[in-house]
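Posting for a labmate who doesn't have an account.
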Amino acid sequence: MAAVKSQPTRIVIVGGGYVGMYTALGLQKKLRSGEASVTVIDPQPHMTYQPFLPEAAAGSIEPRHVVVPLRKVLKRCHVVTGRATRIEHERKAVTVELADGHVEEYEYDVLVSALGAISRTLPIPGLPEVGIGMKTIGEAIYLRNHVLSRLDQAASTNDPELRKRLLSFVVIGGGFAGIETLAELEDMARYALRYYEGLKQSDMHWVLVEATGRIMPEVSARLGVYTVEQLEKRGIKCYLDTRVKSMEGGHVVLDDGTEFDSDTIIWTAGMKANPMLRNTDLPLDERGRVRCTAAMQVVGLPGVWAAGDCSAVPDLSRTEEDPTATCVPNAQHAIRQSKLLAKNIVATLRGKQPKDYFHKYLGSVAGLGLYKGVADVFGLRFKGVVAWFMHRSYHVMFMPTVNRKFRVFVDWTQALFSGREVVALGQIHEPKAEFDRATKS
């Protein structure tokens, strides 16, 4: 007689981003009662839909509406708010530093590595001190308040040099994140200027710095050129094939000899695999990602799975041309991998074979501010309002949960009739400042 398991299979998912949350959501829908327990570990109690961060920063979407509370949607899962610091598959244990600072271990039978990538930085003097990232909802909120507060300060000073510094905004990195962040924030700032009598659009200096010869490599070269042309028509200076040598104290020096001062330097120059993976005994590739089969099983480790930005999943749509091709870290793959991953895990628990992941690249869409965009879909290129509408339609379709889809749609509708919100809530960065002053008076 076959042995009967006395306890449910313990499934631990490390990472609560798009892959982690949607994998857990799929598992809680497909697993039978008592078949398995699912634990999701992430430093944040929410999932962030990162493609909407630029619009959240620019005031088109309420920031709370681009995050999904994990405990609210994963009602049949155990959500742990903590940072995984080590994975020891030999012992089948994950070490986690919890939110209150103490450390616990979580044992597993099935492990899912769903860690997200982090910002890739370079040893540029001044970057750690003055650079601002754009990977989290906190950074998006901070950027919004920061940019609007520079307008407030610039309108309040008579010092022309200080005003020029305050109104100089730099984005380093010409990928999707950098271009959309630049375009949305510039659009917001230009809209806000109507409320500042002493400031003109020509007073602002927006700058893009990209190390390669083109922007947004995911779209066609022609659309990349078109995007640069549109940005420059808006007065944005685009430096291509250019690198930043230093930015100490906000003094930006480019390798072509250009120098200027800026109070706002946004870093979006690429991503890299989460360094926590180096504290594991999982097989990694040369870029620090977990090596996987096409079914998203970790090579050589039964019961271990990986997907998303930090996984090296073979891209079967390209392996005929390049046998070493792996899926690029983007939202398209994260969305589709997570849906198949949940099905594959359930299939193996029930003695069935998992399916290989195959997704042919459909194209890319990007928003460049209100009513502006570019799209490269099925080999067809779109510009302007049509591309902007396609960008919004695509991302609201993949925004998790009906609740959040509805809230984002309402935000867009309100902005259509009442315009962008241009209020800087800078006090949230120093919430006790006024109270401290009161106690000392």
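Reply:
Got it, the structure tokens are right above this. The chain has a mean pLDDT of 90.
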